[in-house]
Design goal:
six-stranded antiparallel beta sheet, three-stranded antiparallel beta sheet, mainly beta, about 110 residues, ILBP, Lipocalin, Calycin, Retinol binding protein 7, Lipocln_cytosolic_FA-bd_dom
Length: about 110
């Protein structure tokens, strides 16, 4: 992600909606800059198109790690993925790629 996009993204207050139906999940992330949607089933690898984010395609696998949803992505970048978990009324997201880590916290509306 380029420098200008990172600077703008820091100012945004995205809305995240996670829907669960048994082992199937849908995650919507909406902001005034970009919207992103991903749908997956726990334990099943799927092709993910990160159009609107970093415009990369990768193979993703989401699993439970205790009470955290953890995604490992295989593609042109190494050691890439994310982890979601809830503490109290906050949703935490930690994204990682090639040794870099980005953390976001969402407040329940």
């Amino acid at each position: 992600i380029d420098f200008a996009t990172r600077k703008i993204a820091k100012l945004l207050k995205p809305q995240k909606v996670i829907e669960q139906n048994e082992d199937s999940f849908t995650i919507h992330t909406n902001s005034s800059l970009r919207n992103y949607f991903v749908k997956f089933k726990i334990g099943e690898e799927f092709e993910e198109d990160n159009k609107g984010l970093d415009n990369r395609k990768c193979k993703s696998l989401v699993t439970w790690d205790n009470d955290k949803l953890t995604c490992v992505q295989k593609g042109e970048k190494k050691n890439r993925g994310w982890t979601h978990w809830i503490e109290g009324d906050k949703l935490h997201l930690e994204m990682f790629c090639e040794g870099q880590v980005c953390k976001q916290t969402f407040q329940r509306a």
